[in-house]
Structures
1.
Amino acid sequence: MPSTVILGTGSYAPARVLTNAELSTMVDTSDEWIRTRSGIRERHIAAPGESTSDMAVHAAKAALQDAGLAPTDIDLLVVATVTPDLVLPAASCIIQHKLGLRTDTACFDLNAACSGFVYALDTASAMVASGRYKKALIIGVEKLSSVVDWQDRTTCVLFGDGAGAAVLGVSDQPGVGLLGTKLGAYGDCVDLLYITHGGSDNPTTPESIAARNHCIRMKGKEVFKIAVRAMDEAARDILEQQGVTADQIALVIPHQANLRIIEAISQYLKLPMERFYVNVDRYGNTSAASIPIALDEARRAGRIKSGDITLLVAFGAGLTYGSALIRW
Ligand code: UT7
């Protein structure tokens, strides 16, 4: 099979920045607590009326421009999100229309929470490598501000909004592009990070809204421990699978949930923090958007050079996990 390569990337964050100082006027918290426990200083919040699809379109346009392609060149769109504009239909169909993609473009959403972009990369790469699709657009996008409980200090300080995108195609050059992926999930941990209402088990009711049960609930400490273990294992598995050693990795782009989680992975892999791309301080946790925003920033900042090996590694609600190795 030919190798799949990333032809371009793009990202977008809403203009509105919510600082820790401002949050501490909304709930009983402090800049000091948020910074020392999570590494987050600020996050972006979508403007009133700014939808998930709007943010996705901004990131997608930047990725298409970076790739030198037109919307009509795309024949596959995969959107990773847990906050689609609507429950039905898929955000990808709304984005297809807003972007002006062809009507014979295959469109679907994928929910793997914060691992969503790695899942989308794996899925779209396989579809492109099969030859049945030529150019894929993959987007990780979230409007988490719409499902955060702004009265719950244990979660509202952590999340933010944004979008990141990548365009995939094939290359005849051997040994470049997506070298491999490792995906998985611990389905026995669904009760650690969830939204109880608004799905088919518990449709929204006036009572559930009053109790804010349409919002994210999380057992942070438990998630933290499993996240470190899952990301470390996912990283080691993909390195072993591809016969690559940790010191050969030029840059790790981890899911940006908590600086302390990234520091723990750095210690476990015995890779210095300089080799990790970190922007959690400026975005908070943007779930499926976190890795593609970081990837786009890293490329544009010149942190990724031709021949470099990059490791993407993520975990999220599910609890899902995923890793990917890319040679540029
Ligand atoms: O993408 C996946 C998404 N999830 C994650 O990545 C989350 C992973 N978990 C974490 O990042 C961390 O567990 C948190 C940042 C959520 C919390 O850090 P922690 O060090 O595990 O703190 P904790 O939950 O043990 O809370 C310590 C104390 C508690 O008070 P007591 O019981 O010691 O009196 C909390 O009530 O801090 C309190 N606390 C706060 N205080 C000020 C919890 N949230 C806040 C807050 N401000 N925002």
2.
Amino acid sequence: MTDAVSPRMTTDLSGRVAIVTGAGRGIGRCISRTLARCAATIACVDVNLAAAEETVSLIHADGGQAAAFACDVTNSDQVNAVVDAVVQQYQELHILVNNAGITRDGLLLRMKDEQWDAVLNVNLRGTFLFTRAAARHLIKVGGARIINIASISGLMGNPGQANYSASKAGVIGFTRTVARELASRQVTVNAVAPGFIATDMAQALGESILKQIQDRTPLGRLGEPQDVADAVLFLASPAAAFITGTVLRVDGGLAE
Ligand code: NDP
């Protein structure tokens, strides 16, 4: 996995303020740095404040603008407080990227209640809480964006991930409904469904499974965080103004 950031698309997001959840590492860090490279101001949200601060330091080193916020996305009070703090600091909010996510894999017959609840809470409830808190600000600015990070597991299923697949399928249904609810306020709401991306989350699968996935992927490789970040950047850009309620797969053709 590389931590280098180099968006393959350029767009001007100056004056735009974005919240990215799970910004402390992996895909969220790359999304944060990519949007910042296009001049957006980033509120880097993570349950691990030190990790979010590290992302902010990288953005500052790139010449961008960002601040770190500690927040557990499953905690309604914390979510509301962070959204309020971001709007107080930057006056407006234009982009929300619901990226924070976890896995607690296990086959259905052995899956514990805690594994189910933890994954549904972070991946689906967290997306709901942040979207609800942010929406009342996003509807005020015109041309706002909500981008939810789903997964191809939510489209095609994946053995050992009943909890995760259900949470991501939920994110997709949520995306489609909120897109319809907020369309009249010119807020677009889309999901990105990554395949297997080389981050700590995918590394947990182990080398031999990753090799099998790579062999099954038509484009012959795992994805990089930048592949996902570029898709998010596109959906956040003016070029995607007429796209809402879609699921953009970023999977090297795996789910086709
Ligand atoms: P990582 O595990 O590398 O990073 C996830 C980030 O989310 C971490 O910084 C983590 O913090 C943070 N986080 C976890 N729980 C919470 C919480 N309750 N509140 C706030 N932040 C939290 O994952 P990836 O970067 O790989 O994944 C990012 C997103 O992409 C997820 O939604 C994932 O489901 C999705 N995805 C990933 C794929 C992959 O192959 N990597 C494939 C398809 C989708 P901490 O460091 O403290 O754990």
